[in-house]
Known about the structure:
Elements: E1 3-8, E2 18-23, E3 26-32, H1 47-62, H2 69-84, E4 98-106, E5 109-115, E6 119-124, E7 130-132, H3 136-144, H4 156-169, E8 193-198, E9 202-208, H5 210-217, H6 224-234, H7 236-248, E10 265-271
Antiparallel strand pairs: 1-10, 2-3, 3-4, 4-5, 5-8, 6-7, 6-9, 9-10
Pfam families: PP2C_2
Organism: Actinomadura hallensis
Domain PPM-type phosphatase: 26-217
Amino acid sequence: MRVLIASEPGRPYRDNEDFAAAAPGVLVIIDGAGSPAGVESGCVHSVSWYAHNLGGLLLAAAGDMRRGLVEALSASIERVNGLHATTCDLGHPGSPSATVAVARVRDERLEHLVLSDSVLVLDRRDEGPAAITDDRLAEVIAQLDEPDDPSPVGSEAHAGRLRSRVERLASFRNQPGGFWVASTNPEAASEALTGSTPLAELDAVALLSDGASRLADRFGLMTWPDVLAVLRKDGPGELIARTREAEAADPDGIRWPRGKSSDDASVVYWDVRA
Length: 274
């Protein structure tokens, strides 16, 4: 299988908190959930450390075809816990966390698992694209009923609103009626969206962190067929380059309100026909 991967930090001088990789028959995207400055995590490790360790362990675990993807993710979360249980407070509500998207070929089908707001797009041969993402975080944010934030990205007022949102979201994270992410609770894996599709029905599959999907699902500058066309013709790097152009045209986040002017962006793309 020929897989194309691109991953780029939101800013050149910051760590990339995404993880994007592939192994024979397995595709993985992990998007670490960074917190604003001033929000405690109870952990001595960075979000990048968490995302990369979880990603590497999940890539290996998902390669074991005796395991379902839910079991593979649960075991990977448990193994990361073991890496820092003696140095960090794993019961802290701000412990590092991440979104997850996994696709795996098994018995002529493509299995998938999506947890939180990374996106998996199935390029279906005889139908339109199917974009699969977990909207529960967005639903909780909508419930918070926050007023519109007119302050520019990077301003003190904007940073303060972000800190307040993260602190308010803590009571909803990995809770019934809230939203679910990979963090310290292995049971979160059972809350992921899962499914499978016959390979014969697919032309391609794409996994995107939310920093790479925003041209379609946040900015509204592309449709999912547009995204797939760019990936097919020019590859993941071109999609990220176009995302950066759009972000640069609205650096203060006035046209498209968002937490970061430029987010880490990662894409894994497999042309099933190749």
